[in-house]
Write a structure and sequence with these properties.
By secondary structure, the protein is of the alpha+beta class. It has a single domain, classed as Ribosomal Protein L22, Chain A (Alpha-Beta Complex). It is built from six helices and eleven strands. Strands 7-11-10-9-8 form a five-stranded antiparallel β-sheet, with helices on one face. Strand 10 and strand 11 form a beta hairpin. Helix 2 packs antiparallel against helix 3. The longest helix is centred in the N-terminal third of the chain and has 22 residues. The termini are close together.
Length: 261
């Protein structure tokens, strides 16, 4: 999978609609980009604008405007449509997708593989990230790395028992970084499934995946940061989760179906 990273600096020059397959575009924005999107926020639907007005904290309003305005603007580019034209609906566990495509009522409640583009959004502290993919359900998660006295307890409760030894001999700083990496991997995977926490996060194991795709050496992301899901109640063989470069103090991961499916 060819993963490409973008930021607000790329917005004006980005005019490419969907071409080809097997790519993921990841857009990373911060609250400092607010003025860019404030000018474009008129593309938000009436319901979205009402939701903006309900936020009490200014930072929450800014995150919402940046994320949802960027989503509409970028969908407009990818699908060669007006940003105002899109309507959305949510799957059984809240994951949004374009309204023209129905969720699979017998499977994961996820937008079907025939959707013109799959997308997902995440935010934490000052950062907002969006991911787009034309041929795979996708999930992305970003988290601000924070000090917490609860990390060991969270690992015991939410991580698979086979993962616990990975953390037992780490120093506090290493444990914190490893924790947030494995947490974003879990979140991204469950969001890609469209399942949320209806699937227990300790019911599967996160393992590093061997370098399995040497056909794209030009890919800017290292495959040493590629992960897979094992020991699950279902077969997740074809899912991969990639650690994504993020600003200092953040961890980010994206989940997708591999090209081998």
């Amino acid at each position: 999978m060819d993963i490409q990273l973008f930021s607000s600096k790329d917005l004006n020059s980005f005019t490419q609609p969907i071409t080809g397959r097997s790519w993921i575009h990841i857009w990373l924005f911060s609250l400092t980009d607010y003025e860019i999107f404030k000018k474009e926020a008129s593309c938000l639907s009436c319901d979205e604008q009402k939701r903006v007005e309900k936020y009490v904290h200014e930072s929450d309003r800014k995150r919402y405007i940046i994320g949802h305005t960027a989503l509409r603007k970028l969908l407009g580019v990818y699908l060669h449509s007006s940003p105002e034209s899109f309507t959305f609906q949510a799957g059984a566990h809240g994951k949004p997708f374009l309204n023209d495509f129905s969720a699979d009522s017998t499977g994961s409640k996820e937008a079907p593989l025939s959707a013109p583009i799959h997308f997902n959004m995440s935010h934490s502290a000052n950062m907002i990230v969006l991911a787009f993919c034309p041929d795979s359900p996708i999930g992305i998660d970003i988290e601000a790395i924070k000090d917490s006295s609860c990390i060991t307890g969270i690992i015991r409760r939410f991580f698979h028992p086979a993962e616990h030894p990975l953390f037992s001999h780490l120093e506090d700083t290493q444990k914190k970084e490893m924790f947030f990496r494995y947490w974003t991997i879990r979140e991204a995977f469950l969001k890609a499934l469209g399942a949320g926490f209806s699937i227990s996060p300790n019911s599967f194991c996160v393992e590093p995946a061997e370098t399995e795709d040497k056909r794209h050496p030009e890919n800017a992301l290292s495959y040493s940061s590629l992960y897979r899901i094992t020991k699950g109640r279902e077969d997740y063989t074809h899912w991969r989760i990639q650690s994504v470069p993020a600003p200092d103090g953040y961890m980010c991961s994206v989940a997708y179906l591999s090209e081998t499916i």
